[in-house]
Amino acid sequence: MTDEEPNSNDRPAKRGVPEGLWLKCPECQATVFRKQVDRLLGICPECDHHFKVGARARLEQLLDVGSFEEWMTEMHSVDPLGFVDSRPYKDRLKSEQKKTGMVDACIAGRGYLRGRPVVIAVTDPDFIMGSMGSVVGEKLTRATEKATELRLPLIIVSGSGGGARMHEGILSLMQMAKVSAALGKYNEEGGFFISVLTNPTMGGVAASFASLGDIVVAEEKAMIGFAGPRVIVATVKAPLPEGFQTSEFLMEHGFVDRIIHRKDLRSELAAFIDYFEIAPAKV
Fold it and tell me: What are the CoA carboxyltransferase N-terminal domain coordinates in residue numbering (predicted)?
């Protein structure tokens, strides 16, 4: 090596692109900057596609800063059936908890939405597809009962591609009736329930509490339904209508009351609450 030749050890190491810096939009296939998507509340800057949003991010988008009081933080699922598919259910729960930082697929509590006190629950599409097991059902039921007691508006934001959680069998299926019964009592006491449907809202969630709102709103192009389209096609042996099971299709057929862009959701929900003039109890 001559004096003019650089020492390879002195060359700066090449810096790779940090993982997760970019996202590929499933709608327009554009590669977009994650931070820009986050600033836009999880919306593609190129085509307006609404990315899936986790439960905690959803609460930050909707509620006043620092106003959320989480309830039932220690409630966690067990494995009553000793269920095993590709791996044991108890192991799947541990990995999902590590991946999402959540105990289960639902967060519930009390907060303020533009100064208005509300009880709110959100399901997370990343925790076993946001499926409803016994913990999710119990949290939703208790949140509804607390909203009844406090005479507060109730908001449930659904993001469940898994419906009822098969890993818990009938203990999961019974949550559909349990949450619905609590909502029935809430309605008898004059409560005001807003159901927000996001992509996806499927299975037992769509077939129970998610469709029982006094007002049912949905985000744009959300997939909403009971069985998936492939299952339906295989069953009825006929092609499905264009746009079937999207929020726009359901709006056209009377299942959804309104489709709201995510950037407008917070203000629209506040306007609904003002319109119905729900007076909170003194606590």
Answer: 21-283
